[in-house]
Design a protein that fits this description.
Layout (H helix, E strand, L loop, with lengths): L3 E6 L2 E7 L4 H4 L7 E4 L5 E2 L11 E7 H10 L4 H32 L15 H12 L11 H21 L5 H9 L7 E5 L17 H8 L9 E4 L3 H14 L7 E3 L11 H14 L5 E5 L1 E2 H12 L6 E5 L9 E4 L8 E3 L5 E2 L11 E2 L2 E2 L2 E7 L4 E5 L2 H21 L8 H11 L4
Parallel strand pairs: 7-8, 7-9, 9-11, 12-17
Antiparallel strand pairs: 1-2, 1-6, 3-4, 3-5, 5-6, 10-14, 12-13, 15-16, 17-18
Helix pairs in contact: 3-6, 4-5, 8-11, 9-10
C-alpha cells in the first residue's frame, strides 16, 4: 500500500504523489505556512494535544495567497485556462485513439463495440464547475435518504479528482494548480498535506524545512520560478515598499524582489528608471520584471516615451495607481502661497509619500498640502509635490508605523490602503 501527499483545497484532495511530495507544489509555500492539523481540521501544536500520530504535517495558506504567488511566477488565470483548452484537446485525441484501438480489439474477439473502457474528457467549463463543486463543503452521509444516493453523490467527486489526475499528462503542473485554486473562495484553506509521509514505512523528517528548501532549488530555473523583480525610481521607494509588503502581503515575501540600490551610488529619479529598463531589455534579462514610477506629471512624461518604443512580454511599465484620497487633496499654487484648494492630484503629485497612509500625511488633523510647480506641456499638467520638510516627516512617521506593525505582528492599525494598492497593481501587472 502506498503513502501519499496531496493538494488540499477546501473539502477535496487533488494531485496525489506517492511516497514523496510534489516539488512544484511544495515550492509554492513558505516556512511560515508549516502547520500540524488535527483530526477535526484545526491547527494544533505537537505535544499539546494527544500523540503526534494524530496530527497531519502540512503547509497551509489561503486560496487568495496561493493565487497571488502563482501570479508572481506568471501562472495567471488566463494562462491556466489556455493550457487547459490545449490539454483537453490533446486528451481528446488520445481518447479517440484509445477508443478506436479498443473497438478494433473487441471486433476481432467478436464482442460488442457499443461501450468502451476509457471515458471521454469533459468540456473545460464543465470540468471547472465540477472542481468548484468538489472544493465546496460536502454533505454528510446522514443527509441522504439511501446509501445508493450517497454513493452516487460521492462518485461525482471521485470522477472529478480522476479527471484532474489525467490532466497532469497534458497541462503544466502550476497551471493545473491555478485552475483548481481559481475555483475556491479567497479565504478557502489550501495546502500540501504530508501526513501520510510521517507514518509507517515512509519517514519524512518533520523537523526539517521542506517548502523553503524546495523553493531554493527551484530558483535555479528561469524565468517562471524566479521572483518577480520590481524596479522603482530609487532606493527609498524600493526599501519602503519592500518593508510595507511584509505587512500588507507577507505571503509574497520571496516571490517579489525590489531591486536594492543601497550602497550602489545609483542616481535616483524617473530618468534613471527609464535607463535601467532599457538596460534590462538590451541585456535580454530572463527574469520577468516590473518598472513602477510615480503617478505624477514627470513620471507620466518619462514613461510615455518608454511605452511608445514597445516592451517585451516579460516587462511591464506601471505607475502607482490612482487613489481616492488623492482625488480631492489640499494644494497650494506654490510653496509660498497660503491659499488652499482641493484638487485631484492623481497623475500630478502621486509620489510614494502620498501612498504611505492618510495617518502619516496628517499633522494636527490637517493633511500636508501639495505644492504645484512647473507645468509640463507634453502631459498637460503641473508637477506637484510635498515640501521637502513634509516629505521627511512622512518618511519618519511611516517607518515608525512599520515598526509598530512588526511589533503587533499584524497591519490592523493605521492606513495601509495606498501601499496595498501599489502591491496589488504589481501582483496583477501581467494579468
Amino acid at each position: 500500500m502506498g503513502h501519499y501527499s496531496y493538494l488540499v483545497a477546501g473539502d477535496c484532495q487533488f494531485l496525489y504523489a506517492r511516497d514523496h511530495y510534489d516539488a512544484e507544489l511544495a515550492a509554492l509555500f513558505i516556512e511560515t505556512d508549516r502547520k500540524f492539523i488535527g483530526a477535526d481540521g484545526s491547527e494544533v501544536i505537537p505535544g499539546d494535544e494527544g500523540p503526534e500520530s494524530e496530527y497531519a504535517l502540512g503547509y497551509y495558506t489561503t486560496a487568495r495567497a496561493l493565487r497571488q504567488r502563482l501570479n508572481m511566477q506568471g501562472f495567471t488565470s488566463r494562462r491556466a485556462v489556455a493550457n487547459l483548452g490545449e490539454g483537453i484537446e490533446e486528451w481528446r485525441k488520445r481518447y479517440e485513439s484509445e477508443e478506436q484501438r479498443q473497438r478494433r480489439e473487441r471486433l476481432a474477439q467478436g464482442e460488442s463495440v457499443w461501450e468502451t473502457v476509457v471515458r471521454p474528457p469533459r468540456e473545460p467549463n464543465e470540468l471547472l464547475a465540477a472542481i468548484g463543486e468538489a472544493i465546496r463543503p460536502h454533505r454528510s452521509d446522514e443527509s441522504f435518504a439511501t446509501v445508493q444516493e450517497y454513493l452516487q453523490y460521492e462518485n461525482q467527486f471521485t470522477e472529478t479528482v480522476s479527471d484532474v489526475e489525467e490532466l497532469r499528462w497534458f497541462v503544466e503542473e502550476r497551471s493545473l494548480i491555478r485552475l483548481i485554486i481559481d475555483q475556491a473562495l479567497d479565504n478557502t484553506r489550501v495546502g500540501l498535506n504530508l501526513g501520510e509521509l510521517t507514518g509507517c514505512c515512509v519517514h519524512l523528517d518533520t523537523t526539517q524545512p521542506i517548502a523553503g528548501h524546495t523553493r531554493e532549488s527551484q530558483l535555479a530555473a528561469l524565468p517562471d520560478n524566479a521572483p518577480l523583480i520590481v524596479l522603482t525610481e530609487g532606493s527609498t521607494d524600493s526599501r519602503l515598499l519592500a518593508e510595507a509588503m511584509h505587512i500588507t502581503h507577507p505571503h509574497l515575501v520571496g516571490f517579489v524582489r525590489f531591486i536594492d540600490y543601497a550602497g550602489r551610488k545609483a542616481q535616483g529619479g524617473v530618468g534613471m528608471l527609464v535607463n535601467l529598463v532599457n538596460a534590462f531589455i538590451a541585456a535580454g534579462v530572463a527574469h520577468r520584471f516590473v518598472a513602477i514610477a510615480d503617478n505624477d506629471a514627470g513620471g507620466h512624461e518619462a514613461f510615455a516615451k518608454l511605452k511608445k518604443q514597445g516592451l517585451p512580454a516579460g516587462c511591464k511599465a506601471l505607475h502607482y495607481p490612482d487613489l481616492p484620497l488623492l482625488a480631492s487633496y489640499p494644494t497650494t499654487a506654490d510653496s509660498a502661497s497660503s491659499t488652499i484648494s482641493m484638487t485631484d492630484v492623481n497623475g500630478i503629485a502621486g509620489s510614494l509619500e502620498m501612498y504611505l497612509g492618510k495617518d502619516v500625511l496628517t499633522i494636527d488633523g490637517t493633511l500636508m498640502p501639495v505644492h504645484l510647480g512647473n507645468f509640463i506641456p507634453t502631459v498637460q499638467r503641473h508637477q506637484g509635490a510635498l515640501s521637502k520638510t513634509h516629505k521627511g516627516l512622512v518618511h519618519k512617521a511611516f517607518e515608525a508605523k512599520i515598526k509598530a506593525a512588526q511589533r503587533e505582528q499584524h497591519s490592523g492599525t493605521g492606513d495601509w490602503s495606498g501601499v496595498h494598492a501599489i502591491i496589488e497593481s504589481i501582483v496583477h501587472a501581467f494579468d
